[in-house]
TrEMBL record, chain A:
<dbReference type="InterPro" id="IPR014934">
    <property type="entry name" value="DUF1806"/>
</dbReference>
<dbReference type="InterPro" id="IPR036492">
    <property type="entry name" value="YojF_sf"/>
</dbReference>
<protein>
    <recommendedName>
        <fullName>DUF1806 domain-containing protein</fullName>
    </recommendedName>
</protein>
<dbReference type="Pfam" id="PF08830">
    <property type="entry name" value="DUF1806"/>
</dbReference>
Automatic annotation (TrEMBL), chain B:
<protein>
    <submittedName>
        <fullName>Deacetylase</fullName>
    </submittedName>
</protein>
<dbReference type="InterPro" id="IPR024078">
    <property type="entry name" value="LmbE-like_dom_sf"/>
</dbReference>
<dbReference type="InterPro" id="IPR003737">
    <property type="entry name" value="GlcNAc_PI_deacetylase-related"/>
</dbReference>
<dbReference type="Pfam" id="PF02585">
    <property type="entry name" value="PIG-L"/>
</dbReference>
<dbReference type="InterPro" id="IPR023841">
    <property type="entry name" value="BshB2"/>
</dbReference>
<dbReference type="GO" id="GO:0016811">
    <property type="term" value="F:hydrolase activity, acting on carbon-nitrogen (but not peptide) bonds, in linear amides"/>
</dbReference>
Length: 116, 236
């Protein structure tokens, strides 16, 4: 993955629009957040291989970036995206890596299901 | 303490690196004594957060990296039989409880271990650790008392000593310290930052704390019917 280049990422988001796609969306503080700091309220969400179809996908310019997908009946968005790549299997992988290199959020889009 | 000869050892942990942090030295000592060791590793740590910045992996490439690290780590520990159980990181507690117990029961039936290493329920911090430990303890509890293997539980919740007192099983692993370090280093995607910090401290003349590197601590997990018996025999 490399740091977000807005124009390139926007083109990739466009390329998945109006197709049935599988998504992986994940936010996390890490399972040990409360172990290391009792004041942390640990919350996160994870969805993998949900099938969606979006009509408009957009990455917003200022970093860390926000990526939103507008669907016929709803929305998907991710905040804090810093890195992206189109992997060797044609999947668009986006992630938000914090200052220590730990993943805080991931949003991935693929025309084929992700592994289990 | 001096380790007794065991018939067969079984490790049950959910993530590649749990075994290295918990019992790498003890397992190496047993392997050196000729005890066969099987490690059932439930997931590939697919949800590990450390991808680096700049990143060395993606969410999708991490599992294969960790699979290779796991293989190198078990080699350093002298484990010949590695089972990757195919569950997904952070979902273990949501699996069917009976399916989890059966998975452990099947391993026990096949291998007939005399000693099992896993986490200590209630003091294992990570939900996957807790779910793994619950399944192991329940599988063993269902066995006839005289056939049960011992379970050595790893506990590291912040309130462990406060609630349970100091660990009763302390294994001196100083003679296999280098193998333990090798196992930890094998999990580079998880431990590189820690190993770098350790190297720095060693260079500065402050080696990693003796207690952490040289002694591995466990609590014997006892079932209710066993505790009752020991109370009864003590009162006789």
């Amino acid at each position: 993955m490399k740091e977000v280049e807005v124009k390139e990422l926007q083109e990739l988001l466009n390329s998945f629009a109006n197709k049935d796609v599988y998504i992986h969306l994940e936010t996390t503080n890490g399972a040990y957040a409360t172990h290391f700091n009792e004041n942390v309220f640990n919350a996160g969400a994870f969805i993998r291989n949900a099938r969606i179809r979006y009509e408009l996908g957009k990455v917003v310019g200022d970093a860390p970036h926000r990526v939103g997908l507008k669907m016929e009946h709803g929305w998907v968005y991710a905040q804090g995206i810093t890195h992206f790549e189109l992997d060797e299997r044609g999947r668009l992988l986006m992630a938000g890596l914090d200052y220590t290199g730990k993943l805080a959020i991931a949003l991935e889009i693929s025309e084929t299901p992700f592994s289990y | 303490m001096i380790l007794e000869q065991e018939r067969q050892i079984l490790l049950v942990f959910p993530h590649p690196d749990d075994e290295a942090f918990s019992c790498a030295g003890s397992v190496r000592l047993y392997a050196n004594m000729g005890v066969p060791v099987t490690y059932a590793c439930l997931t590939l740590g697919e949800m590990g957060r450390n991808l680096g910045n700049p990143p060395f992996a993606t969410r999708e490439s991490l599992p294969e990296i960790r699979r290779a690290e796991l293989k190198a780590a078990v080699e350093a520990m002298g484990i010949k039989d590695l089972r990757m159980m195919g569950l997904r990181d952070k979902t273990v507690e949501f699996e069917d409880d009976e399916k989890m117990v059966k998975m452990v029961s099947d391993l026990i039936e096949e291998l007939n271990p005399s000693l099992i290493f896993t986490f200590f329920p209630g003091f294992a911090v990570h939900p996957d650790h807790e779910a793994t430990a619950r399944a192991v303890v329940e599988a063993v509890r269902r066995m006839p008392k005289e056939q049960r293997p011992k379970i050595w539980g790893v506990a590291f919740a912040n309130d462990t000593v406060e609630k349970m007192g100091e660990a009763t099983i302390n294994v001196d692993v100083s003679t296999v310290k280098l193998d333990k370090l090798k196992a930890l280093q094998a999990h580079a995607s998880q431990t590189a930052w820690m190993m770098a910090e350790t190297t720095k401290r060693v260079e500065e003349g402050q080696p990693m704390s003796e207690s952490w590197l040289n002694v591995e601590k466990f609590y014997l997990i006892q079932h209710e019917d066993e505790i009752d018996q020991s109370i009864n025999s003590a009162s006789l």
